[in-house]
Amino acid sequence: MVTLGRQTAFSSSLFRCPMKNIGYGLLLTFVLTGTAWSQEAEQTSPAKPASEEVVSDEVALNEDEIAIFQAIDSYTAAFNKGDAQALADHWTDDGEYVSPDGKVLKGKDALVKDYLSYFQETPGAKLEVRDTHVKMISPRVATETGVAVVMVADQDPSETTYEAIHVKTPAGWRIDSIKEVVAPLPAPTHYQQLQGLEWMIGTWVDNAEENASVETTGRWTTNRNFLVRTFRVFIQDQVDFEGTQVIGWDPSLGVIRSWTFDSDGGFAAGRWSQSGNRWTVQSLSILPDGRQASSTNIYDLIDENTVEFHSIGRQVAGELLPNIETLTIIRSE
C-alpha cells in the first residue's frame, strides 16, 4: 500500500512522502497488480496398463510381481468386457470384497451374482486402475494399493482408493480380499482464478534509486487459495518500511481482490482486472492518520523476469497527486 504522504509498497504505501517515491512505486506495482502469463494446460497421456505404470527403468520386478501385475491387467480387461465369471475366477474361493458403503461379499458365488447384477444395471461400464503399487509381504502373499476409476456413460466417473490382498495358489495368484473406500475430495481451491498472477511467486527487486531498494516476495498459501506477498523498503541497507498483502478470489463478486497492511498502520483494499498482459488495480486506502486515498495501479508484464508499473488517478482526501511514472521491477530469484 502506498500512503499519499509516504508511499507504501502496495496501496496505502503509494501515498507516503513524495520524496520517497523511489521503490515505493515499484513496491506498489507488485502488491497492487500483476500481469498474467498465458499458460497451456499440461496434456495428460493415455493411461497405461498397471503392468507398465508401476515399472520403472531402475526397478526390476521378480516373477511373482510380474504375475500379479498381469493378473491386475487381466482383471481390468474382464471388467471392461462385462464378464462376471471371468472376474470371479480372479478370486480365491473364499475371497471377500468390502464396498465403500461397507457392504461385504464373501465367496465366488456371491461375487458372480453381484457382478452380473452390476453389469445388467450399468452396461458398458469401464474400469481404470491408477497409481498401482504391489508389495510382497511373503513369498505367497502380496498387497496391492491404488485408485480405481469406474466410467459409465452419461455419469461422472466414480473414484475409489483400494487395498487388495493377493495370495499364491496352485492355480496362480488370486485375489483374497479387496477393500474400497471413496477417494477423498480434493481440497477446494481458487487456483484456476488466480493462476494468472502466479508470476508473482518468488522475489522481485526495484533498485532504481541510489541507496534505496524495494524487495517483494510472493508465495502461495496451502491449497493455492491465496497469494501472500511481503515487501520491505530498504534505505541504505536498513529496513525503513514493510508490509503484507493477501490476494484472493471473491466468489460472491466474481473478482480478484487484495488486502494490504503496512508497518505505518495504513491498510488498503483493491480490485483486480486483466486485459492481456496488463493488470489494473482499483485501490482504496486508509492512511495511518485516517485520511482516505485512492489510486489506479497498472502492471504490465514485459517478460517472465520484468514488470513495469505506473500509478494514475492518485488522490488523498480529495486532493489530486502527481502520477507515478513507469518503474521497472526485476525478478531476483
TrEMBL record:
NCBIfam families, sorted: SgcJ/EcaC family oxidoreductase
Record-linked InterPro entries: DUF4440, NTF2-like_dom_sf, Steroid_delta5-4_isomerase
Signal peptide interval: none
Domain of life: Bacteria
Name of the protein this chain belongs to: SgcJ/EcaC family oxidoreductase
Domain DUF4440 as annotated: residue spans: 70-175
SUPFAM superfamilies: NTF2-like
Pfam families xref list: DUF4440
